[in-house]
Amino acid sequence: MPTITLSGVSKSYGGGEHAVRNLDLVVPDGAFMCLLGPSGCGKTTTLRMIAGLEQPTAGSIAVGDRVLDSVERGLYVPPEKRGMGLVFQNYALWPHLSVRENVEFGLRMRKVPAPERRSRAEAALRMVHVDAAMDRYPSQLSGGQQQRVALARMLAVNPAVLLLDEPLSNLDARLRLEMRAELKRIHEESGATIVFVTHDQLEALTMATDVAVLNDGELQQLAAPMDVYDRPANRFVAEFVGSPPMAIVETGPAPTGLAASLLRHVEPRAAGKAPAAVGIRPEALRLGPPPDAAWHEEALVEAVLPAGSSWTVRLRVLDAELYAVSYTPVLAASGDVLTCWTEQLHLFDADGVRISSWDRAEATA
Ligand SMILES: Nc1ncnc2c1ncn2[C@@H]1O[C@H](COP(=O)(O)OP(=O)(O)OP(=O)(O)O)[C@@H](O)[C@H]1O
């Protein structure tokens, strides 16, 4: 099984603007890597370069020992010789072919004999749970079923590398959830190396073994999903991953209000430079009596927003507005004064880089 290695990969489309800039990325053998980032950050360009649909303007791409692109050596392997399976957002199926024939199509192109074609197509359709609709035509399937057929078509070929570009974006919320679980299972069963592009952080956190967060063509962080969430490398990652987003309190040269309160708490524990900003995740902000040594303040309840399984509370804390998310019922009402506390503060320096040694959650982990 292959490891995909991107070394110093850049892509510019002319005009000097870089879609991807100096990207070093290793997708380990058997990984399920999500490329995550906002629109225009270079995710699709990165995937298309791995697929061979775009050529880098600098750097090299290799799968295992096999170099597929090297700008320096003038080397480029076309997509059909890369042995990768691709599923893009628009998963065109042949409308005049049945589901089974659609899945067999790729195998036919590879000159796989008919009986083997048939059994491999059926196995792939079973894997995505659309084997019951094998003799129907694409127009007779739901969007989610069509999506799965597109996946089965790729799985039947059994590529060691699967490249998926927002393949769930056309599905409704329920199907998307179902397909996330399905893809995760398929990954575990097939052992393939998967690279998956998404702008949906929940998709990345729930499915991936590794997450690469990109912004403006540059890699911001490469880590396991929970590390991206618990230990974001910088302010961009901190604010992009998590919903509602992390509150960031700038400390400034003469901190007052909430900033001063947070600094009074973290400074005795600090070693080195003062944080330029302190981050609080809404779900780490608790209400009620604080444990010893937790940061805490009085909070005026401005609004309680129940959402079935969670409660979002808007609080006024000193001079700032903070949101808390609770997964147990919040019985308070607007105008109540409670104590809010947290043991998880994220500290950032003036460049926005996280100062991990100051994280109380880590210190006590
Ligand atoms: N063929 C092209 N010609 C010129 N510029 C391009 C081309 N393809 C992409 N770009 C530019 O490169 C940058 C990265 O685009 P890319 O499609 O990789 O981003 P993305 O993160 O996948 O975005 P989205 O989530 O919106 O698909 C963008 O600024 C985009 O406008």
Using brief descriptors, characterize the structure shown.
365 residues; alpha+beta; Rossmann fold; OB fold (Dihydrolipoamide Acetyltransferase, E2P); 2 domains; six-stranded mixed sheet; five-stranded antiparallel sheet; 10 helices; 30% strand; globular; binds adenosine-5'-triphosphate; ATP hydrolysis activity; ATP-binding; ABC_transporter-like_ATP-bd; AAA+_ATPase; nucleotide-binding
CATH architecture grouping of the largest domain? 3-Layer(aba) Sandwich
What is the CA-based Rg, rounded? 24 Å
Q: Ions, cofactors, ligands: which are bound?
A: adenosine-5'-triphosphate
Number of domains: 2
What is the CATH homology-level superfamily of the largest domain? P-loop containing nucleotide triphosphate hydrolases
What global shape is seen? Answer: globular
Q: What level of helicity do the residues show?
A: 25-40%
Q: Report strand order across the widest sheet.
A: 7-8-9-3-10-11
Largest sheet: 6 strands, mixed
Strand % is: 25-35%
Beginning-to-end CA distance, first to last residue: 35 Å
SSE-based structural type: alpha+beta
Residue runs with pLDDT of under 50 for 5 or more positions: none
Order of helices and strands: EEEHEEEEHHHEHEHEEHHEHEEEEEEEH
> On the 0-100 scale, what is the average pLDDT?
90
DSSP summary, beta strand count: 19
Can you tell me the CATH class of the largest domain? Alpha Beta
Count of separate DSSP helical elements: 10
